[in-house]
Amino acid sequence: MKFGVIVFPGTNCDRDAHHVLSTVFEQPVEYIWHEDTDLSSFDCVVLPGGFAYGDYLRAGAIARFSPVMRSVERFAQSDRLVLGICNGFQVLLEAGLLPGAMLRNDHLQFRCSWVHTLVESTDSPFTSACDQGQVLKLPIAHQEGSYYAPEDLLERLERRSQILLRYCDPEGRVTREANPNGAVHNVAGLRSEGGNVFGLMPHPERCCEPILGGTDGSYIFRSVLGTGVGGRGPGAGETRTQYPALSIRNVEGNTQNPEPRTEIRGNR
Amino acid sequence: MTVSRQLLEEVALTPEEYDLIVSKLGREPNRVELGMFGAMWSEHCGYKNSRPLLKLFPTKGPRVLQGPGENAGAVDIGDGLAVVFKMESHNHPSAIEPYQGAATGVGGIVRDIFTMGARPIASMDSLRFGPLTELRNQYLLSGVVGGIAGYGNCLGVPTVGGEIYFEDSYSGNPLVNAFCLGLIKADEIMLATASGPGNPVILVGADTGRDGIHGATFASVELNERSEERRPAVQVGNPFLEKLLIEACLELLQADYVVGMQDLGAAGLTSSAVEMAGRGGCGIDIDLLRASRREKGMTAYEMMLSESQERMLVVARKGCEGKVQQLFARWGLHSDLIGVVTDDGLVRIREGEQVVAEIPAPLLTDEAPVYYREGVRPAYLEELHRFDPASLPQPADYGRTLMDLLASPNLCSRRGVFQQYDHMVQTNTVLLPEQSDAAVLRVKGTRKGIAITTDGNGRYTYLEPKRGGMIAVAEAARNLVCSGAEPLALTDCLNYGNPEKPEVFYTLRESVLGMAEACEALGTPVISGNVSLYNENKGSAIYPTPVIGMVGLLDEVDQAMGLAFRQTGDRVVLLGQSFDDLGGSEYLKLITGKALGEPPRIDLGLEAAVQRCCLGAIRACLVRSAHDCSDGGLAVALAESCMAGGLGLECEAGALERLLQRDGCRVDAILFGESQSRIVLSLDESHLHALERLAGEAGVPLAVLGTVGGERFRLGGWIDMPVSEMRDAWSDALGRMLQGTV
């Protein structure tokens, strides 16, 4: 499966996304410069985290006008997969490829920490490798991550099961206390109506190797890989393939023993 | 002398220095030249007070690729890789405008790193403030933290640690010392040298504005009630532009179009042009009319002294200038061809055809005056040393004292601060502060890890400067060792008051001597650094505060060691020996409100042995946690290991009594004294014998204290309380102080 990682000026998680896809999951990956417009060779396009155009004006507000975004729109219309992580999620919202908007965190500060998220639906190419109701421990790092949508839109999103991830406590309870930014309905990740576009505030690319303190991010990438070449939109869960047990690698292929590291970091 | 005293004050030069300029130049300098001399001969750029002292530091070692003198130092870590690192102060700007002062401090140190061709992979910040009971200090803390977060997060360089201390002496003059580390292939290090007459000189990045004029001289005088008026001397940062510069410059260096590169920091275009020419032994000819400006009507003087941020000076290979400018344009960066390298050794500044300044480069750099100042031992030392710990009653309730310490400003959790920093971006962060004594990063493509720590106890240095310097180095090395790393080298920020005061100079000299001695003993050379003098507010100096940024190497990053107790049933042991070291302790500060007595003694031989033993035990996979005893002493160290692991501890009364007898000291000294060279380890019972043998061979005292387990923290008959209660007191304290509810 061939991945493209879009680089806007100010993107700063492009190398992380590239690393995880190429080195951990051993997939072909190329960077896509924001002025490039030919996406025809890719099966999945990733909009990584960072501060595209410095997040000046509003996160994602300038990046949506980059030449590549017209192509991303067409790419999404062709039912192929688009994954927006953190700033990439913000860009997708600004571009109208996902519904709703992002507000500043309710506590007004940047927040970098581990959170728990509840998998609300596995009927998606981005969560098909998860179990319904599974809790994923993922890192967040953002200042503008408080998802907002008006009531009628929220109602529609809920009805169509477009909310794939919700902030929750370690036991999977969706509570106000477990919400790190004030997002409505604890929304952490959202899919498009067609199902092939997914945006999430947490950073799955930061937790696919045991040495980094967790591997739950790999469920997202395994889901994407499990859909095979090209997305199939909603219903991809039916074609869900069991991806082989991952050998997590630290670049050189030295297989890590996951056990001790997670213990050290268990106090988060 | 035909220059007014007022004009000299503006450029912070003395009449004697002016006469020296006239005699060296063979004529009176014009206004522009005078400004350039003022900046280059300032303490900040010229180190005129500290240069003789800095020579005392060991700067060489088998792994050192680049010592002091460049934008940053570099150390070989094997596998064809090197780390480049440096620390720099941004104290005065942060005192006036905390957000931008701290933000541009981060921006400046990051530029120093990628100027060398290295990709910045981690930052740290060592901060000092006055007590949070004052609103102004709360404002400074939140502003500084916000600035570091705002700038560093946007760059995508993780802020992986640092430290914050609160002391009265930093009220009004906070310290903001920013550290950055970069990674590079060892044979690709780029130097900031102009060479090859005829090679074009390109200025890239932000347009030049009127911000930051006189920043270098501002940094070299005392703060006073009129300092607020210097707010315009504080620059405003644009992290987005800096991010573009990082990517463009690193790409540029891969292409071999460039012979030298230098960032524009303190003293702006003046220092970058002069230093590049000076290092290359050549001249440089610059036409200011070709440089883009933010505003109309800027004079040559303003252009040369502006400290507008996010600018770089690049010397390209002749004929490559078009390609260089194209590459910058692709990253959306504006660049101007402003000059050329010459062979006459002159820094020549023109406005079109008209020459506005012409000075031989060495006059501004190597020939800057050097002052060998006299130091006088401050009288306060004897008075404070007279304090006798024996006069102190034992606390009525050791548990209560421990709780108070855990909730005190200098010991409580920093989570509220570091969760504002993106500490995970770049996906290398293996261990964070509060998880380990040092931050540990993996090096992708290898099995290695890098450990980083910053450290410096101003109170110890205030109470006995030489010992304070030694302890700063020793403790930094101990932190690295506890994380499983072998210490390699260090960078430092020397933060002191006005060196023209003999008492202040004494503290500077003595602590440098102490640091140098510890560097020799522990094999950690100084490869870069920065001096910040004139840290005074309303006539009184800050605590003399040397801050160390030390870097270590793990051959196997899998061996990175945390401080948390991890396994019920593990045995807990203490390496090292305790004395009646109550002087200068947090405990003493807590109960008397004062800095008193002599700081803890330190035996560098024992220190090295304890570190060898600890590192040997970690490498032999004997231990499950390691944590050094520092601020707050043994009880606080044990409590931190419990809180981090969510596990209790049972120390048998007998074990503690034996320790008390062996070391022959007071109960409060054992619990809360800050004796150096002590490390708490936890390990499986089955490894205890091997550890004892290791300690025996190294000549290190070892005592078994107790066993990990349960939910309570029990130290013999002295302390018994739930770990959860300690955790509550410790984790929320800083937030409560900021909300003014304490």
Instruction: Quickly give the structural class of chain A.
Output: alpha/beta
- Give the oligomer, counting copies of the same chain as homo and different chains as hetero: heterodimer
| Straight-line N-to-C gap of chain B | 58 Å
Query: In DSSP terms, counting alpha (H) and pi (I) runs of 4 or more, how many helices of chain A?
Result: 6
Q: If helices are DSSP runs of H or I spanning 4 or more residues, what is the number of helices of chain B?
A: 28
Mind telling me the C-alpha Rg of chain A? Answer: 17 Å
- The count of DSSP E runs of length 2 or more, i.e. the number of strands of chain A, is 11
Which strand-content bin applies to the residues of chain A? 15-25%
Average of per-residue pLDDT values of chain A: 87
Structural shape of chain A = globular
Helix percent of chain A reads 10-25%
Number of strands of chain B: 28
- Inertia-based shape of chain B: globular
Main sheet: strands, sense, barrel of chain A = 9 strands, mixed
Can you give the mean pLDDT of chain B? Answer: 93
Greatest interface (CB-CB under 8 A), with counts per chain? A-B, 43 and 43 residues
Query: Strand order within the widest sheet of chain B?
Result: 8-10-7-11-9-12-13
Return the structural class of chain B: alpha+beta
Major β-sheet annotation of chain B: 7 strands, mixed
Topology of this structure?
The complex is a heterodimer of chains A (268) and B (742).
Chain A lengths: L2 E5 L6 H11 L4 E5 L10 E4 L19 H11 L3 E5 L1 H8 L6 E3 L7 E9 L15 E8 L3 E3 L2 H9 L3 E6 L18 E5 L5 E4 L17 H9 L31 H7 L4
Chain B lengths: L4 H6 L4 H11 L5 H10 L2 H4 L4 H4 L9 E3 L6 E6 L2 E9 L1 H6 L1 H18 L3 E11 L5 H21 L3 E8 L8 E11 L14 E6 L9 H4 L20 H16 L3 E6 L4 H13 L2 E5 L12 H6 L5 E6 L4 H10 L4 E8 L3 E6 L2 E7 H4 L14 H7 L12 H9 L8 H4 L10 E3 L7 E4 L6 E7 L2 H6 L1 H18 L3 E10 L6 H21 L3 E7 L3 E2 L2 E2 L3 E10 L16 E5 L10 H7 L11 H16 L3 E6 L4 H13 L3 E3 L1 H11 L3 H6 L6 E5 L4 H11 L3 E7 L3 E4 L3 E4 H9 L1 H6 L4
Parallel strand pairs in B: 4-5, 9-12, 17-18, 24-27
Antiparallel strand pairs in B: 1-2, 2-3, 3-6, 4-6, 7-10, 7-11, 8-10, 9-11, 12-13, 14-15, 15-16, 16-21, 17-21, 19-20, 22-25, 22-26, 23-25, 24-26, 27-28
Helix pairs in contact in B: 7-8, 7-10, 8-10, 10-13, 19-20, 19-22, 22-26
